[in-house]
Specification:
This is Chemotaxis protein MotA. By secondary structure, the chain is mainly alpha-helical. About 65% of the residues lie in helices and about 0% in strands.
């Protein structure tokens, strides 16, 4: 998990912006379910439906069996060096956390918990499965 206060400050966003990220958290949980049930290679069938460039990049790295430390380094580089702020940056941080947990084989429930924590302004009932 990224623990960088300067980055957290740049990623700060309103409750309304955080609310728009709930579907992303639920999508990461769904991807975790697919990976847990059918393996990481099954995620390849999800790629055509993924519009977010950062999420698609991370999924492709995982599908290509890129070493976890390399996936982390590539995603971190994008987060730190591509000028993102607010909701866009928060989205990247959530995606990074979810993908690394999917690659590590975490349970879908743990993926949900560990990605929803970034949306502290949102009531947990928005995540139905918690």
């Amino acid at each position: 998990m990224i623990r960088d206060l300067a980055l957290a400050g740049k990623a700060a966003c309103s409750a309304a912006d955080q609310e728009t990220l709930v579907p992303l958290v639920l999508k990461l949980k769904e991807l975790g379910q697919i990976a847990q049930k059918n393996g990481l290679l099954a995620l390849e069938s999800e790629l055509p439906d993924i519009e977010d460039r950062f999420l698609r990049l991370g999924l492709q790295l995982i599908i290509d069996r890129t070493e976890p430390n390399n996936v982390k380094d590539i995603l971190d580089s994008d987060i730190y060096y591509n000028e993102s702020n607010g909701r866009e940056l928060m989205s990247k941080i959530i995606i990074r956390e979810g993908l690394l947990r999917i690659q590590a084989g975490d349970t879908p429930r743990n993926i949900l918990i560990c990605t929803s924590v970034f949306l502290g302004k949102i009531d947990s009932s928005s995540f139905v499965s918690i």
